[in-house]
UniProtKB/TrEMBL annotation:
Protein name (database record): CPBP family intramembrane metalloprotease
Coiled-coil intervals: none
Molecular function per GO: endopeptidase activity; metallopeptidase activity
Region of interest called Disordered, as start-end residue ranges on this chain: 1-40
GO biological process, one term: CAAX-box protein maturation
Amino acid sequence: MRPPLDPPPGRSPMPPPSRTNRRPAPEPAPASSSSRPRLPDGYWSASRGASAALLIVLPLLAGYEGGLASLGGDPALRTGVDSWIQQAIPPQWGLPAWAPSLTIALALVCWRVAEPGRFRPRWLPVAAVESTLLGAGLLGLYLLFDRWLAGLGGLVYLRADSWPSGLPIDPSRAIGLVGAGIFEEAAFRLGLLGLLYAALRVLHVPNALATAMAASGSALAFSLAHHVHEPPGDFAPSVFLFRWLAGVYFAWVFILRGFGIAVGTHVAYDLLVAAYPWPDR
């Protein structure tokens, strides 16, 4: 009788199991070369990118131009930066009045193509709530600012005297406020702030300081622009100061939350100011 450990006749003995005789683990499949980096998923990160800017700003642009067309397309209804652009375009070019809006829309589309990442349409209500809260925050700061200056003679309210305050808001005024929010953010934040920051970085200004200086400088231009065509003697330093602070506020919303939320915040703030029941002074 053979010992139980002996191999059967005609077979070679099997080596004892060892680490060296184990089969190597299969190597992971290489990543596809066609994949490209994407922004992290989630509302907070995605809402800062190009996809969010496109989905937020494009409907506002369409509503602005559609509203103007429904009111007869009167050029006088175009206010602020949009009206300045209309005046700067040579008449011989023959461009339609909606050309600046189309330019912004095409720029957003190009930005979206160049930047991966996806902002889901179901997040639009969240963006609307965030923009409204940020706009209400600025309105609250304005009310505190006005109370703080009450002993100095008070702060002139930002609404035009020719417009009644409170609800409902006149449709032509609401359309103008939407356009003002879009074009002012495109000009002073997306354009001027970005150019100032780039110029400061070329001069080797540290990143944090360049960001703060660009935000403050673009806010200064933003405040000055609101005093263009102002009747002589109507300039109020307190109003200028608050508009500069508002420009800084919008600048940091743009820096931290992106262009889409900045536009939404500006539009929400303007509409809240128009709807607020200001007391007569």
